[in-house]
Amino acid sequence: MARSTTPQSPGDLILIALFAVLLAAPALLALTGHAGFDTAFIMTTEQRRPFIAPPVTSGALASGGWERDFERQIADAFPLRKYLIEGYDYTKFSGLRDSSSGFVLRGRDGWLFLASDEREYLDGGPGDAVIAHLADVYAARARWCAQHGIAYVFLLAPNKSTIYPQFLPPGITLVAPSGADRLIPRLRERGVRVADPRPALRDAAGRGDVYTRRDTHWNDAGAYLAYRAALAALPRDRIGPALEPAALHPRIDLGDADLLRLSGVSGLVQNSWLHYDFARRSRDVDEPLDPADPELAGFARHVTVIDRSRFPKAVIFGDSFSEQIRPFFGESFRHVVNLHHIRPIDPQFDTRFLEREKPDVVIQQLVERGLVSGAEFKP
User: Is the pLDDT of residue 91 over 60?
Assistant: First the structure.
């Protein structure tokens, strides 16, 4: 008896041909010597280095792990790897409204949130013992500054979820009291000046975005409110004039965003950024780090100065949020050094640098989700 066959539609044939090309093209490129690492893509999008299998002399053959290592190296050097991954990521992001990265939470109305530390924070971390330790660490830094004639202020950068909890994914809610709710009273009890911009940010969020939807950070509207909160917490004789709202001119730019990079769609999808333009008295300068201080190697350093100014001098110890505040602080201090640490557990305070720099003010900025690493903080 003859078997009946169903004719293939043109659409089916196109899909089969496309699938065959996707399978064959990388193999042909590899055979013709076009395999290799796309180091920039791996380090920027996947936040790691390309995998290189250890040499045979390392004992990998004896341990039996050489097959796995060889496969990982081939996978990282696979031809067209970047484009295949980007195609998959973009399809999932735009078509299925999801992220292929476990580091990203896809919220409501197109809002994205960082999943890693922020998820742990949303689950109730850190514990009270960590909060007590953190309060002791920052109180010790404040005391050291006071002993050296420096005004110290702790500046909290709230998580985006703290300001916009209504856009979190279904099933995820804020835990109350939060780590910041428990830390800030302890700091104040220990005599630490605290700049808490959460009330001002929540109020402003009802009138417009103060964070950006596809990045973890605040925009210039949020950074400006944090700057004003820090000035309000400092003694008046330790700050110059504040940059007034009337001097700010908003503009919207389209650009890259960290949560888009983590989702693998950077360059394919853009983020809307609110920036403030203003007539600057300050200018950015390039001052090299002191090679005699090994602790400084853990910081990225940026400096802003106002020439021939008698304003006070400031040092900022902060994370990536501090980079967006620095231009505003640059208008209220004659010399601002921003020492930006990469991870919450990296050094965040350098007494030798402060003894040489002799600032009038130290601003200690930390993002709220960074509190979950508090057990590893050092005085």
Answer: no
